[in-house]
Amino acid sequence: MKRIPFVLIAAVLAFSLSACGTSKQTQPPAQQPATETPAAEKPATETPSTTPSGSYDAATAETMFKNTCAGCHGQTLEGAVGPNLQKIGSQLNKEQILGILEKGKGSMPPGLVKGKDAENIAAWLADKK
Known about the structure:
The chain is an all-alpha fold. The protein has a domain at 56-129: Cytochrome c-like domain (Cytochrome Bc1 Complex, Chain D, domain 2), CATH 1.10.760. It has helices at 3-18, 58-68, 70-73, 94-103, 115-126. The longest helix is centred in the N-terminal third of the chain and has 16 residues, at 3-18. It starts with a helix and ends with a helix. Keywords: Electron transport, Heme, Iron, Metal-binding, Signal, Transport. This is Cytochrome C. Residues 1-21 form the signal peptide. Residues 22-57 are annotated as: Disordered.
């Protein structure tokens, strides 16, 4: 009888910890791929990026963040298990944020997002000042 509560506790703990490590891939809208959209085709309502490395897709970055990172950093970047990221751009630049995404830091595992998705999120977070 003592094993049943232990197994239940272990299952709950494993489930709750897996929330921070999920790597869901979001599907871009069918009419235009999010990571390959030229800057000229972006909607006029989107503000241009001020990052020196070029533009990024803020809507895609936010969606990717909410699907991959918000479990630990909160839906509005307020922090939860992970640190608050609401003003991370005033502390770290895009390259530093990209390095953390690639290599991990503290309890954050490396490679939760990769490639163009990681660059897009890093640029989006670098603008949070």
